[in-house]
Amino acid sequence: MTDLLVIGGGVTGAATALAAAARGLRTVLVERFPPGHRYGSSAGPSRIIRLAYDDPGYITLVRDADRRWRDLQQSTGVRLVTRTGGLDFGPAGLPSLRATAAAMASAGVPFTTLTGAELAERFPQLRPDPGMEGLYQPDAGVLHADDCVATLLAEAARHGAVIRHGARARDLRPDGDGVSATVDGQRLRAAAAVVAAGSWVNDVLGGTGVALPVTVTREQVGYYEVTGVDYTPARFPVTIEHQAARPYMISMFPELVPGGGIKLMRDKTGPEITPEDLSGEPDQAGLDLLTAHARRRLHGLGPLLHAETCRYTMTPDADFILDLLPGRPRIAVASACSGHGFKFAPTLGEIMVDLATTATTPHNLHPFRLDRLDR
Ligand SMILES: Cc1cc2nc3c(=O)[nH]c(=O)nc-3n(C[C@H](O)[C@H](O)[C@H](O)COP(=O)(O)OP(=O)(O)OC[C@H]3O[C@@H](n4cnc5c(N)ncnc54)[C@H](O)[C@@H]3O)c2cc1C
To answer: Ligand 1 mean position to 340 CA, how many Å?
Structure first.
């Protein structure tokens, strides 16, 4: 019998399948869409990995995940991470910047505080407003998202996991001392399951009587041509502009591919959608706002080259849900998005296998338990 059924082949499910198979567990991962699909939250060329968090708990998790990404890059020879350094900037004294600096200081993360003048001098790409400050952290970088997911799945398969694409799991429920779900009309039994179904989590949990308090939004990114200014990874770090009002964060990526443009995004500004709304149409009004801000903030910005959409699965407090379903100890659920889950995947994979197989883990999951959201 299968030891672990993993539902969902995004970055969280893929990392879970690798962690399980590497421990010698008989593992089956089912993914409803074909390899490389763009309907979920894990597709695209890039994601930020950073230690600049306002919560030491997340810093501990990122450090562990960062080591695991580097080990995976080393063992497979696939380029998964590009170090660029990371910059967080905004109005001096902004609470989110202060909290980030305090958390990094308490966690012993090396960083430099830059005055407005130092910001403009060190990063000539930027046009900071008067009275801004920055936090520079050298270890941040870009995760090559599509390659990360493909490599996790390939390594899981190399360790013996069965990876089934185009296989949608339905009617998951406890079954005897294990679990079962219907996949392609067949009942698939396993000793335990990890649900890593992203925005479809409640669709998958429908048969268990448990629903997670998540909201799904369609977010978008724009790629802009740049001329006459150096935005290469060696010169332009992954950058987050903090604001006092929504969008609280605007993220900016270096130009990873010559001529490919820089990637920009206004965080958490997308419309709420239903999980089955697969239309990925960008929102022109949102892009116009992004373009207007980028023109004000950045030198050498040319036209929008193209835009992409992707979805966030938001919890009410933007923290993850990493827990066993109440009263169903053989079903573990990972809702690890809220717009910032990708970087943690290798560590979350280990945590989910711990939970599903032993109901415990050495990691502190208190902030991620489901019942914290009980009304
Ligand atoms: C625009 C954007 C920018 C982001 N930037 C960053 C960043 O810079 N840094 C960062 O760390 N994070 C970032 N994130 C967040 C990060 O990408 C997500 O947290 C992460 O990808 C979530 O992965 P997942 O595996 O949980 O979900 P998904 O990737 O959505 O995977 C869930 C999978 O489950 C499958 N599935 C669903 N139902 C079923 C079923 N019934 N049967 C079988 N399979 C099923 C789906 O097809 C899907 O492939 C960003 C997200 C977006 C959208």
So the answer is: 10
Atom of ligand 1 nearest to the CA of 167: 43
Q: Are 177 and 337 in contact (CB under 8 A)?
A: no
pLDDT for 288 = 97
Mutate to test the pocket of ligand 1, among 5, 149, 342 (most ligand atoms within 8 A of CB): 342
The reported pLDDT for the residue numbered 374 is 82
Q: Give the per-residue pLDDT at 280.
A: 87
User: pTM score > 0.85 for this model?
Assistant: yes
End-to-end CA distance of the chain: 38
Asked whether 311 lines ligand 1 (CB < 6 A), one says yes
Contact 72, 151 (CB under 8 A): yes
What is the token pair recorded at 136? 């520079």
Domains 2-43+146-213+317-374 and 68-143+215-313 share a fold: no
The architecture CATH gives domain 2-43+146-213+317-374: 3-Layer(bba) Sandwich (3.50)
Distance 132 CA to ligand 1 centre (A): 33
Q: For the chain, which residues score pLDDT lower than 50? A: none
- Residue 309 beta carbon below 6 angstroms from any ligand 1 atom: no
